[in-house]
Structure formats: C-alpha cells, structure tokens
Specification:
The chain has about 250 residues and is α+β, with helices and mostly antiparallel strands. The protein has helices spanning about 1-20, 25-45, 45-65, 140-145, 240-250; strands at about 75-80, 85-90, 100-105, 115, 120-130, 145-150, 155-165, 170-175, 180, 185-190, 195-200, 205, 215, 220-225.
C-alpha cells in the first residue's frame, strides 16, 4: 500500500506541471471532472481508482496542450495545418484543377490544434457528415466526417480538411467564411486522433515526403510564391515577420 500511495502522489505532483502549460479551454471541460473525482477517491481511500482518474486527467490536459510555434516568414511558405506524420503525397485534381494532396495523420499523442497553412481569407466552410474510419485508411479522406475549408491567398486558392477518425468524433473550427487569417493562426481542432489534408495547385513545390514528422504552424510543407507583379490580394503576405508571428499566436 505505501508503494501505491507514493505512485499516487507522484502522479498528482505532475498535474501542476501539465496545467501550467498552454492549453485550450476544452482541456478544462474534459480534464477537470476526472481530476475532481480522483481527489474524492483519495479522500475516501480508493487509492487505485484515484491513481487511474488522476492519470486520465493528466492525459486529457496533455492532449489539449497548445504550445506556441515560431511561424516561418519566408515568402510563399505553406506551413503544416497540423502536427503528425505525412502519410500521403499524391497528385489529385480538385474541381478540374490539377493539384497535389498532402495528408497528415495525427496520433493521439500529437498536438491536435489545427492552424491555417497560409495567410488569406476563408472563402468557404463546408461540413460533411460521414463515417468514422481509422484515420490511417486512405478512404478516410473522402468518406469520413470532415470540415472542408477553402482559403484565398495572395497566390491563389488552396483547400484543407479537418477529418474525424475512429476515435476522433468531433471536428471543431473556430473560423467562418469571410474571416481573414494569418499564416499559422489557430483555426480549430479535431478531438482524440484524426487526419488533416492539404490541397495545393500543381505549381506549388512540395517539400515533404512520406514518413516525415511535421509540426503545425512551423513546418513548411510546400513553397508557393506569389508571381512577380501579381495583383492578387487574397492574403496578407505583406505582413512583417513580427506581425505575422503575433497574429498567429492569437488564441480563440
């Protein structure tokens, strides 16, 4: 019993460290109930139950962490909309336009806050109900529940998806059509394991390959520079690096 109690106190001592880190508000909604119940379990001498509940609370707080990221200021950089591993890089047309799709698999231990891949204006937001296939399955990109977000940038149109998975049953987007976003700005999350797809036109240079591990907002997936003399004004690529970084750090 003393050994069990020491492990319980060790688990409890780690909670302030987790709670002190950046975390989105959903973490409190899901993490506080097991934390409180764990405290009650310890007070009533249900030590093992208390350990399990504290461990669950610690995991939930860790899952909903939201670390700051340094947003690249390179002109034309398209950053990753999510943390995870590259599982697909393929040619894929979109509405008759040739392009390329990059798919990112988010394991349950990855940061699940999603970010805008470029500066621009949200021109479309479509929720598509669907299945809950494992996010690793290729069909998940087309058949799973998802939010499809269209983004108009200074270079042109791109699209990315928040896709639910076998465990992830909720896709959340904090933006709406007409919102102007900075490169790397937080736009939403998918709860408990998922997938995020990014589509860019064919002339974008892909900089990642299968198996690469990427971080949302800071890893550059592609380079798609604004053509010289272009008058396109869909995005905010004219921001200074400091302005871009500050805007990207805003929380919702």
């Amino acid at each position: 019993m003393p050994r069990v109690r020491s492990r319980a106190w060790a688990a409890a001592s780690e909670l302030p460290v987790v709670l002190s880190k950046d975390m989105i508000k959903e973490g409190y909604y899901f993490g506080l109930p097991p934390l409180v119940l764990g405290g009650v379990a310890f007070l009533t001498h249900w030590t093992v139950v208390g350990i399990i509940l504290l461990a669950l609370a610690a995991f939930v707080f860790y899952f909903f962490r939201d670390p700051e990221r340094v947003i690249p200021s390179d002109p034309g950089a398209v950053v990753s909309p999510a943390d995870g591993r590259i599982v697909v890089v393929t040619d894929e047309p979109l509405a008759g336009r040739p392009g390329k799709r990059i798919s990112i698999f988010l394991a349950i231990w990855n940061v699940h806050v999603n970010r805008s891949p470029a500066a621009g204006t949200v021109t479309g937001m479509e929720y598509r109900p669907g299945k809950f296939l494992a996010a690793m399955v290729a069909r998940a990109s087309a058949e799973n529940e998802q939010n499809v977000i269209s983004l108009s940038t200074a270079t042109g149109e791109m699209m990315f998806k928040q896709i639910a998975g076998l465990i992830a049953r909720r896709v959340v987007c904090w933006k709406k059509p007409g919102d102007v976003v900075a490169r790397g700005e937080r736009i939403g999350l998918v709860r408990f394991g998922s997938r995020v797809d990014l589509w860019v036109p064919r002339d974008a240079e892909i900089l990642v390959k299968l198996g690469d591990h990427v971080k949302g907002g800071s890893s550059v997936l592609a380079r798609w520079p604004v053509p010289t003399g272009s008058n396109l004004s869909g995005g905010r690529e004219s921001r200074t690096p400091v302005e871009n970084l500050t805007a990207a750090g805003n929380r919702n």
